[in-house]
Amino acid sequence: MSKLLIANSPVLTFLKTLHSCSTRRFSVGAASLSSVKGRSCLTLKDFSSDEIKRILWVSADLKHRIKHEKEYLPLLQGKSIAMIFEKRSTRTRMSTETGFALLGGHPCFLTTQDIHMGVNENYKDSARVLSGLCDIILARVYSHSTLEELDKEASIPIINGLSDRYHPIQILADFLTVQEHYGSLSGLTVSWIGKGNMVSHSFLMAAAKLGVHMKIATPKGYEPEKSVIEEAQRLSKQEEEEDKKKRLKDFEGFQITMQTGSVAKPDWIFLHCLPRKMEEVDDQVFYSSRSLIFPEAANRKWTIMGLMVSLLTDYDPKIPMIKF
Predict the structure, then answer these.
(1) Span 259-288, mean pLDDT?
(2) Band of the pLDDT at 316, cuts 50, 70, 90?
(3) Cis previous bond, 74, omega within 30
């Protein structure tokens, strides 16, 4: 049985853990984990376990010091970010723009109507121009190949704000939210129910590295990409659970209800990357005490801040390392 539920549009996930805990845990560990300064973040596939843990640790540290201790930390003072958005956004835009500014930096929001990139100027030239004008680029694009071309030509870090293949910054927020709720990540099980997409791909690329098991139940023909599944299996020997699919046949479609939660353990929770569609989850679950969707959305800010600080500075967290 699973212990908690997490849904990410347009699908649902379950999580299972060996214990229940509602309090935040800190663990005194190594003074630091692997630095990622100067790197790009197109997919968490490219990051080791220690590197992902460091980003989450920095995120928790910034949240603690700025939100709870009311400290002013201008860690990005004098720096600027180009925020390129081919697609509309609420959480990615607001979390990045307000987060970068809160750290003393200058965010520049750019749509396809504002710049020549991809229209009168190729990606190669745009990447080189922006490299001389700012310190980092976040791009929310239709095609993952756009990010790869920008990263190839830019001399500054590139962050994937969402592509058709991966959504790494959403998964960082998900894992921080779950860590805060349960106190650790190791031993959890994520069960993904619904259509495979960029969010499920990112879960698969990061879960095994954090000691999290992944189970997938998707409608036939809507599975995650085969290459992503194979890579995840290589990392953790995870397998798609056919029996989970059979158990879900008793439910109406793939809409998440309290009945869906009956296959989970008593302290399951529910997450969703938003915006949601009514056919994905009913109001009883979405607005219930089991739902952590709004803390999850708020953590988008702290995790993108943690990622940007990690890519641009040598900052070391001041709080003890959180427990993974």
Answers:
(1) 89
(2) very high
(3) no
CA distance 200 to 193: 10
Whole-angstrom distance, CA of residue 3 vs CA of residue 262: 10
Q: Which two tokens stand for residue 253?
A: 């479609």
Query: How far apart, in whole angstroms, are the C-alpha atoms of residue 105 and residue 138?
Result: 14
Say yes or no to pLDDT of 12 above 60. no
What distance in Å separates the CA atoms of residue 203 and residue 191, rounded to the nearest whole number? 10
- Enumerate residues 6+ apart whose C-beta is below 8 A from 66: 72, 73, 102
Are the beta carbons of 203 and 194 closer than 8 angstroms?
no
Crossing angle between the packed helical segments 293-312 and 168-182, to the nearest 10 degrees: 120
Give the integer Cα–Cα distance in Å for 270 and 15.
9
Q: Which residues are catalytic?
A: 273
Closest-CA residue to 184 (of 210, 223, 149, 202): 210
Q: How confident is the model at residue 240, as a pLDDT?
A: 44
35 phi, psi to nearest 5 deg: -75, 145
Instruction: Give yes or no for a contact between 302 and 175, defined as CB atoms under 8 angstroms apart.
Output: no
pLDDT higher at 312 or 279: 312
Residue 310 host element (H or E):
helix 293-312
Q: What is the pLDDT of residue 107?
A: 98
121 three-state secondary structure = strand
Q: What SS3 state is found at 144?
A: helix
CA 222 to chain centre: 21
Q: What percent of the chain has pLDDT over 70?
A: 85
Which tops the pLDDT comparison, 299 or 261?
299
- In this structure, the strands spanning 11-15 and 189-193 are antiparallel
Return the half-sphere exposure (C-beta side, CA atoms, 13 A cut-off) of residue 44: 35
